[in-house]
Design goal:
The chain folds into two domains: about 200 residues, Vaccinia Virus protein VP39 (Rossmann fold); about 60 residues, Helicase, Ruva Protein, domain 3, CATH 1.10.8.100. The protein has about 280 residues and is of the alpha/beta class. A seven-stranded mixed beta sheet has the order 4-3-2-5-6-9-7, with helices on both faces. Strands 1-8 form a two-stranded antiparallel sheet. The N and C termini lie far apart (about 50 Å). The longest helix is centred in the C-terminal third of the chain and has 13 residues. The chain contains twelve helices and nine strands. Helix content is about 35%, strand content about 20%.
Length: about 280
């Protein structure tokens, strides 16, 4: 195992500081990072995608676990520190400079299954998460998502119907996957400390309900939760056939979106799904 200098020393030597514009907050606690890397199980020999590695704190934990890591980083300042890590773990680390929102992740991973582990930059975390959960092809190439979010966002992902946190993110995360809150991380663990607490969500693909279009479900949840204070008969008016479909699946049109279960949303989407969609 490579004998690496402390992370703080690496950051000081390269003159690095967390960029607020890039949503960066660095983690230095190597024991915590190793616990995060262990959440998806044994990573020895497995492909892992990491977005926003920064100076490489989580990256080194993944490499020590034996993973083959592809790291996407758009901050040029961090590339020399990551290059040093690559030298310490020959053949295990590939760094791709670029914007993760604009890259084809499946293509980048060579069409092979991969786990995603990231201390996601706060400003792109939700967008990336929704993208990984989307698409008609299922199961996806990713085998699990282990992601750091602001605690409030993490709670929205695992929320249950009837709660204030329940919304579009919960439905998209739970209709064909299992999502759980794996670990809470105190703000003091980061440099600089963010204003909010953080949490790690772990998601694994599940069976996809038959006859349901992902695109239709996304459209329904966007409409329903876009006007969450309104009754469904109002909020779903913009989706052709949706109000009539409520009766078909036995959902009272006077209910509000936050009371509709994940299964009920899937049933509604199934009725509205056309063979051409």
């Amino acid at each position: 195992m490579a004998d690496l200098p402390p992370l703080r020393e690496v950051i000081a030597r390269h003159g690095l500081s967390a960029s607020k514009a890039l949503g960066q907050n660095f983690l230095f606690d190597e024991q915590l990072l190793e616990r995060i890397a262990a959440i998806p199980g044994d990573l020895a020999g497995r492909q892992v995608l990491e977005v926003g590695p920064g100076p490489g704190g989580l990256t080194r934990a993944l490499l020590r676990a034996g993973a083959r890591v592809t790291a996407i980083e758009m901050d040029k300042r961090c590339l020399p520190a990551l290059a040093e890590l690559g030298e310490a773990f020959p053949g295990q680390l590939r760094v791709v400079e670029g914007d993760a929102l604009k890259l084809d992740h499946a293509g980048l991973m060579g069409g092979e299954p991969f786990a995603v582990l990231s201390n996601l930059p706060y400003n792109v975390g939700t967008a990336l998460f929704v993208r990984w959960l989307g698409g008609e092809a299922w199961p996806p190439l990713w085998t699990s998502l282990t992601l750091m979010f602001q605690q409030e966002v993490a709670q929205r992902i695992v929320a249950q119907p009837g709660t204030s946190a329940y919304g579009r993110l919960a439905v998209l995360a739970q209709w064909r996957a299992q999502a759980k809150l794996a670990m809470k991380v105190h703000r003091s663990a980061f440099t600089p400390p963010p204003k909010v607490m953080s949490a790690i969500v772990h998601v694994e693909p599940d069976a996809m309900p038959a006859g349901v279009s992902a695109r239709m479900l996304e459209r329904l949840t966007e409409a329903a939760f876009g006007q969450r204070r309104k009754m469904l008969r109002q909020s779903l008016k913009g989706v052709p056939g949706a109000v009539d479909a409520l009766e078909v699946v036995g959902i009272d049109p006077q209910r509000r979106a936050e009371t509709v279960t994940v299964t009920e949303f899937a049933n509604l989407a199934r009725v509205l799904t056309r063979p051409s969609s």
